[in-house]
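To the team - pyridoxal-5'-phosphate complex, inputs and output below.
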Amino acid sequence: MKLYRSTRTEQVTVTPTEAILKGISEDGGLFIPDEIPIINFQLADLVGQSYQEVAYKVIQLFFDEFTEEELRMCINKAYDNKFDTAKIAPVKTTQKGDFLELFHGPTLAFKDMALTILPYLMIMSSKKQRINQEIVILTATSGDTGKAALEGFADIPGTKIIVFFPQEGVSEIQKRQMVTQKGDNTLVVGIKGNFDQAQTGVKEILGDQEFKDYIAQQGYRFSSANSINIGRLIPQIVYYFYAYTQLVEQNKIEIGKAINVVVPTGNFGNILAAYYAKQMGLPIKKLICASNKNKVLFDFFKEGVYDINREFYMTNSPSMDILISSNLERLLYYLADENVEIINELMRNLKKEGRYKITDQMKKNMEDFYGGFTDEEQTKRAIQKIYQEERYLIDTHTAVAYAVYEKYLEETKDEVPAIIVATASPYKFTKSVLGSLDNQYEMKNDFDLLKEMEKIIGTSMPLGISGLKDKEIGHTKQCDVDEMKKIIKEFLN
Ligand SMILES: *Cc1c(COP(=O)(O)O)cnc(C)c1O
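Output:
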């Protein structure tokens, strides 16, 4: 069986189901496969296959503790008609580039790609481990993860989910999506504080042994739906293989030829999945990491220094407004040739000084990556350009990727075809997107602009968003940061 180990301790190994249930290793490290599997199929075999079939072929290489029947059941329940296209993750071809659309799930952002399957993987893991406690998912969100996790876990027997979001720190549409969530096992709470405080609060609770013992007596155990969970990372590898086969089908590339991928990045989960795909044998040449004005990763790839002692910006691509990219720890592990001593030292420095510097050898090892960033004006111009020339409306996060890709082309003249990852539907950010086309829209609110956007796009708006304004608000709880435990206790009683 494939085993998993921590990025921080050599001896720790756990089975796939243990890794999925734990979410994070007790030493604070992240779980990674003992060895990255090489594909045991031909790329040509994937061409023309369904998303579900590609998902099975890829995921079984990692989660072989499940039987074929179990894994296929998880996949079929996740990728069904809650996606608005049978293709699940279609590639939209334009003269300006090929966009891999990862926003056709229920909450209109790419988090659905993994958070639709994670609940089934967790329940199955819990059964296999013969755990009879209910799983309580704790999540702090700045917008997209919260709603995707709520949709994924709502009404799933054997689970409860609690989401904390910063009362004043999410967009109108994101907030409404969460507070109208149905499902008796869900709780959504507005925190009187910012996202960092919510996140820190959740992390503290996950590490609080006394509190964990207390809820264990009530028949519960905590887990995490954040992208540090390996059960979220592995399903994200699938769509890179799937996108590749679509380029082959469209005669854009010959099988075996290399592509580049361009990924709008925050927590480094999505692009790390592309890195895994490459290690497994998918011909990817460059991994182009696109950041917004919070360009901590750009500086890292350029200088080999990761430094969070800097101003934090709230931008028009809010899901990428982040300074600590948790999943980078997994890449560091590979760059350090799996030397856990180095990882421990870097992570100690990050905690103590908010900064670390990697070795020259590690810097050499990251030649496959290219880092780029854009400011908000360039992001707006990218939306304008793609719309004017292609009549294709992209969201602000996708626009960051496109703008960085343009810079990359200018700099390198690289002719290898690229997949540009489109992470959110423009409907999630109506004001910023339409405001890029014409600043008269910036006067209006997100809800009023839904209809306008529908007219411009010319097809009816996705189900996840129509009627949202009139849905009943079922979640009105608010709390101070130091009341999170109290709220959890009340909910579980
Ligand atoms: C979460 C998110 C990202 C960043 O993805 P990471 O895996 O955290 O790097 C980019 N765009 C959107 C729309 C997101 O929701």
